[in-house]
Amino acid sequence: MSPEEPCDRAEKTRECHVAAAYCSKARHYSFPFHCYLLKRQMSVEPSSPAPAPAIPPAAIRWSWEAYPANRIDGTRVVVPLGCLYTPLDPAGCVNVAYPPLRCSGCTGALNSFCAIDFRSKTWGCPLCSVRNAFPPHYAAIAENSLPAELVGYNTVDYCVKQGLPGPVFVFVVDTCVDTAEELTNLKDCLRLSIDRLPEYAAIALITYGTTVQVHEINGTTDFPRSIVFRGSSEVTTEHIKKGLKHPEKFFGLMSQCEFSVASIIDDLQLDCWPVAKEHRPMRCTGAALSAAASLLEIVAPQSSGHVVAFVSGVCTEGPGQVVVLPKESMIRTHHDIQDKTAAAGLFPAAQNFYDSLMRRMVGLGHPLHVVAACLDQWGAAEMKTAIQATGGVVLATDSWKREPLRISLRQFFKRHPDGTLAMGTNVTTEVVTSPSWKVTGAIAQCIGTGKRSGCIADSEIGYGGTCQWATCFLDAKSTFAFYFETSNTPPASTTNQPATGASAGSTNTSKGQPQFRYVQFITKYFATGAERIRVTTVRHLVQDPTNFPALAQYFDQEAASVLMSRIAAHKTDTQPVIDVLRWLDRIVIRLVSRFGDYTKDQPLTLKLNPRFANFPVFMFHLRRSAYMQVFNSSPDETAILRLLLLRADSSDSIVMIHPALYSYSMQAPPTPVPLDVSCSQPDNVLLLDTFFEVLIHHGPTIAAWRQAGYETHPDFAHFKAFLDSVREQAKSIAADRYPAPRLLEVGPLDGDARILMNRINPSRTHNNQAGAAGAYGGAPGELVYTDDASLQTFMDHLKRLAVQQQ
Predict the structure, then answer these.
(1) Same domain for 124 and 188?
(2) Could you tell me if residue 613 is inside a domain?
(3) Contacts of 81 (CB under 8 A, 6+ apart)
(4) Could you give the 3-state DSSP secondary structure of residue 600?
(5) What is the pLDDT of residues 8-66, one digit of tens each?
(6) Quick check: 222 and 301 in contact, CB under 8 A?
(7) C-alpha distances in angstroms, 311 versus 346, 371, 441?
(8) What DSSP line would sit under 449-505, residue for residue?
(9) pTM of the predicted model, to two decimals?
(10) DSSP codes, 83-108
(11) In the chain, how many domains are there?
(12) Is residue 647 scored above 90 in pLDDT?
C-alpha cells in the first residue's frame, strides 16, 4: 500500500497549509460542531434571534445573560446564576494613578453607571442609590471633562501606593533525587527560574532531604554557610529566630546576590544520608515548607512573598509525612482514604499540618507553588488545601528533563513589557451588589474572609457566608466563579446614565424599559512594588415578568458547564463521587425538562433549543472525566486536575471538560469533528487537544505509510507536507498554553493511543459491534473495549426521564 501518486504535489501542499491556517483560526474556543452528534439523537429546533443584552467586560462571562426578577422563578431555571471573573484580564481595562472614589453607603467605587449631577457636583451610586458629593479635587468635572471611570471603562485599575518592597521568592529544593542526571536537570530548572526574576526581586534558598538547610546568600565570607534544622519536626518562627541570628544574610536582592546563589546551586549534591535497602529516602518536605513560611514571616510580613517548592518525591519524615520508609508499605489510594485503612493512617495528620500551614500563609498573603517531577505520588492530595487556598500553581511531570516543564516555568515567571512580573499577590476580592440580588458564594483557589454585608445571601454555594474572599496569588488566567440569587427588592430600570440632575438609582418600571441589576468586583492586590485596586462594574439584565422560552435565548451553555463543573469538583471534597454524579444527572434532567419542547411521556417528540444542545454533551464528558471518575487515578492526580480546573478561565476549562478533536485527511481540509470513536478512520489523522496533551493519532493506513518510509521519500513530498501541517497545528495550540501540554505523535498500537480511546465517546464497542461487524477493526473506525455507556445511551435515558418530569 502506498499513498496516492504526487500528481499535483504543489497544489496538495498548498491545501495542507491553507487547511492548517483554517484550523488554527477555528481553535477550540467555541464548539458548534458538538451539535452534530446531538442532532442525530435529539431534535434541535431553530431559534429566533434574541435582543442583544448589554455587553459585559471581556473578563466576565455569565451562565445567564438575563435572569428572572422573581426568586421562585430563579430556582425554576435549574442552573444557578453565576459568572466567571478573571480579575487580571487586561481586556477593557484602564490604569490610573489615583485611589478610587468610594460610596458612603455601600463602599462601592465610582463607575460609568453612576448618575452624575454636574450642577450640584454629586453622583448617585447604582448599587445602593445613595447620593454622594464629589470631593474638592473633582471640582472641575464636567460633561466634557470626565475621569476614566465615567467614560465607558467597566474595569479600572487604581494605583493606590507605590514604592513598596518587591516580591520575595523562597526556593525550597528537594535534593533526594534518584540519579546524578536528574540532579543536573533539577539545577537547570532552578537556574531557569532564578534567571527569570527581575533585579528588584529578593530571593532565599532552602534545600532539604533528611534535614532542612537554610543557605546564607548575603554574607561577607567567600564560603557561604547554611543553618541546619531537624527534619523530624516543624520549623517554627521561633526556631528560625533562634537559629538565624542575622536573617538579612539569608535573603537578598537579585541584583546583589545573583552570583552567590548561582554558586550554591552549582555546588548542590545529592542528599548524603544513607538509604537502607528496600527503603525510601528520608525526605522532610513538610519541615522544609514550614521553614520557608517561617522565614517569610520574619523577613517579608504582609508583602509579596512566594514559596516555590521543587519536589522530587514523597515526604517520608516529619510533619506532612505521607508514607513510611519501607517500600513494602504501599502509598495510599482513593479506596484507602475513603475506607480509612492502615495505608491511609498518616493522611489525617498530614492534612491537619497543611491546613495549619495554609492558615499561616493566607494570613500573611504568601502563596505556595509546587513544581514536582516524580514518577510516583509526592503528596499533592495532602497539600491540596494549602495550595488551593493560597492560589498556588502546580506544575507536575515525571522528570526534571521534560521540556514542557521548562516552558511552563518560563510562563510562570512571565514579565510585562516593562520587565515587571505579570502576577499579583496578597489578594482580596470583594463583591458589592445592588439590593435586587445577593451573592451566594465563590468557588476558586481562594478562601472566605468572613466579612459581612447586606450583599450576602442566606443560601451558600461553595465558599459562602461572606462578601469577601482572599487568595495569595493571581495571574492573567486565575478565574473566580461567583454565584448569585435574586432577592425580593425590585431592580433599577435604566438604559444609560440618567440625564444631568436625575436622581441616583431611580427606578422606572414602565413597560418596555429594560431593568438591570448591578454588581461590582473590587480586587485589592500587590504588584510591581505597588498596592493596586482593580474595580470591575457590571450591569445584568433582569427579566420581569418571567418568560421561560424567551429566557432560553440568554443561556450560555459553555459558561454554565464550567460553573456546574466547579460546583461538582467542590462537592467531591465532602461528598462521595457517586452522590455528585447523581446530582449532576438530576440537574441535566430538570434543565432539559424545563426548556425542552415535548409531549409528555413521548421521548421522540423532545426538541431542544440550540443554546442548550451542548450542555448535556458537556455533562456527559464531565461525568466520564478524571475530575469525577477516580478509578485508575491516584489521589495526587485527582487533586492536581481539580486544582487546575478551579483556576482556569472559561475557554481552557471547556477544553478540560470536553477535549477538541480535529480530523485531517489528504482528500479534505481539516475539520472539527465530534469526540466520537467513529471519527477514527484508517486514512485520516486525528488531532486531540485535552488541554494537558496535544495528541496526533495516525490511522492504520497512515501509520503503515510512515513505517514504510514514505515520509522521507522525495517522490512523496506531499505526504510529508500533509503530516507537517498537522504537527504545525499541534505546536500552535501548545504555544500559548499554560501549563504547557505534552506533544505526542502516536499510531493505533502505541501505548499513548489510550489517551484518545479514554476520552472519545465509545459509540462502537466490543459489545454492540462484534456481532454485526465481526472482529476488532471490521467496521469503519476503531472499537473501544469498555463497558461505559455511550453518548447515545446517555441521551436516550435523558429523553425518557426528561419527558416524565412534571
Answers:
(1) no
(2) no
(3) 62, 63, 64, 67, 74, 437, 483, 484, 485, 486
(4) coil
(5) 433 443 334 333 333 333 333 333 333 333 333 344 433 333 333 333 456 899 999 99
(6) no
(7) 19, 6, 33
(8) -----TTB-SS-SSB-S-SEEEEEEE-TT--EEEEEEE-SSPPB--SSSPPTTPPTT
(9) 0.90
(10) EEE-TT--TTEEEESSPPPBPTTT-P
(11) 2
(12) yes
Distance separating alpha carbons of residues 411 and 196, to the nearest angstrom: 10
Can you tell me the distance from the alpha carbon of 17 to that of 758, in angstroms, rounded to the nearest whole number?
A: 30
Q: What is the residue whose three cell numbers read 500500500?
A: 1
Residue for grid cell 460553573:
563
List the domain range (segments joined by +) for residue 329. 168-412
Read off the pLDDT of residues 355-413 as tens digits, 9 standing for 90 and up: 999 999 999 999 999 999 999 999 999 999 999 999 999 999 999 999 999 999 999 99
The predicted-structure confidence for 627-646, as pLDDT tens digits, reads as follows 999 988 999 999 999 999 99
CA distance 156 to 147: 11
Flag whether 460 is in a domain.
yes
User: Is 224 in contact with 215 (CB distance < 8 Å)?
Assistant: yes
Which of 127, 130, 154 is CA-nearest to residue 436?
127
What is the model's pLDDT at position 512? 62
Q: Out of 412, 437, 460, pick the residue that ends a domain.
A: 412
Q: Mean per-residue pLDDT for 541-552?
A: 93
Mean pLDDT of 753-765: 86
Distance set, CA 603 to CA 589, 616, 800 (Å): 13, 16, 5
Q: What is the mean pLDDT of the chain?
A: 87
CB contact at 8 A, 298 and 305: no
Q: Are residues 202 and 281 in the same domain?
A: yes
User: Could you tell me the CA-to-CA distances from 506 to 89, 128, 198, 516 in Å, in that order?
Assistant: 32, 11, 50, 12
Annotate 417-465 with three-state secondary structure.
Answer: CCCCECCEEEEEEEEEECCCEEEEEEECCCEECCCCCCCECCCCCCECC
Asked if residue 534 has pLDDT above 70, the reply is: yes
Q: Which residue has the cell 505597588?
A: 530
Tell me how far apart the alpha carbons of residues 620 and 697 are, in angstroms, rounded to a whole number: 23
Cβ atoms < 10 Å from Cβ of 667: 9
Give buried/exposed letters for 222-248 (b at 16+ CB in 10 A, else e).
Answer: eebebbebebeebbebebbeeebeebe
Domain-terminating residue out of 532, 555, 578: 555
Whether residues 369 and 427 share a domain: the answer is no
Q: What type of residue is 365?
A: G
